[in-house]
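Notes, Module 5: Reading structure tokens.

Key idea: the token line is not a picture. It is a compressed description, and you learn to read it the same way you learned to read a sequence, by spotting repeated patterns. We will look at two proteins. The first is printed below with its tokens.
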Amino acid sequence: MTRSRDVANIDGLLTTKGDIYAATAAATPDRLAVGANDTVLTADSAQATGLKWATPVATGKNFALLNSGGTTLTGAATITISGIAADQIMVVVQAATFVSGTGDMGVLLNGDTASNYRQSFINRVGTTFQSFGVNSGNITLGTNGTVLDALSGSVFISGCSTSGIKIFQGSGSGGTDASSRSRWTGGAYTSASTISSVSIVTLGGAANFLSGTVYVYGAV
């Protein structure tokens, strides 16, 4: 077979716009038909040409609600959501109130109350701002000002499914008058344990939760 004949045969393999050459063996070219729109060329040894067109794998994380319908904050100073298996967690607390008046609300990871939460935060009370850096026994989301002031907040924690430091960032606020309070916090949880539960707790003089709901979202 002449060189011109070889070229003609090779050219004849490509019949459709987007077709590409692919080898089925050494010195054995073949046609790989064009793939569907938005697919990508992927190596696959099970295919005759060692290649295929495939839908790209999504790289973003999709959060799903882990405690279906949310968990009511009523009748206890600590409410725990267990059975968590996620790399990233978002804890959202809505309209939490306490049996007694002024108090803080915090988040515990794996029920840990030791000083393993290294955080820096900014507090706003009315129009006054304060900033702190502490090693504490919880991620404090905020303080309510008076009896039945609803306190809401959220915290995002990453690295939960691996051993090592977990990074978190959160905020919370409570009150509707000049004594209303807000907090912005961020830092690291230094325990090496993976996270299997989160707890919402009352702090600083507050008694049991009277109302509110907590939602825990997770992404692998």
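Here is the second protein, with the sequence above and the tokens below, as before.
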Amino acid sequence: MNFLSINTCSNICSIALFEDRKISLKEKENIKDHSEYIAIYAEELIEKCTEKIEFIAIAIGPGSYTGLKVGLSFAKGLSLALSIPLFPVETFLAMNEKINFKGNYYIALFSHRDYLYVQEYNNKIPIKKSKCMKYNELSEYKIFGYGLECIENLSFVVVKPSSLDIGEFTIKNYDKIKKDSSKEFSPIYLSV
């Protein structure tokens, strides 16, 4: 299986090339404009590829509106240019693969001011839809996430969103994602 994986849901621009069992990663944190890096990283990875790229796995959110828009626009253009399909992957489902926790917990990404994109899970299963809400409205569950250090007195375990997560989730759930990729999909843009 040879494919590109892209995740631009946060201030991390992350693109990975999965070529059989070999993985190449281009990633930069704390960026303000994904469009500065995404095409350069993709070109560098595509040049390394010795086999035909079969598809692009893309994070569809939730996350940064601008980051998702840049990532999806780029992925759609590249998929058309290469005549390959896009495989949509929800950001939190991919991040959840890294978490081994029993009971209720949240996966969260910083949104703005005191708002977070969150989804509640129980024993690795999502139990509510993702939403954008104030951090002080959360229950007393453990929080796993990224970009949350700017909120005072919020206790959380860092789980960074990455194209590696998107790619590994795609491999694990390939048949279902391939089937779903034939349907129209929309990014998950959340607002207050």
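Summary for the second protein:
- The helical segments are 38-48, 65-82, 91-96, 163-172, 174-181.
- The mean pLDDT is 95.
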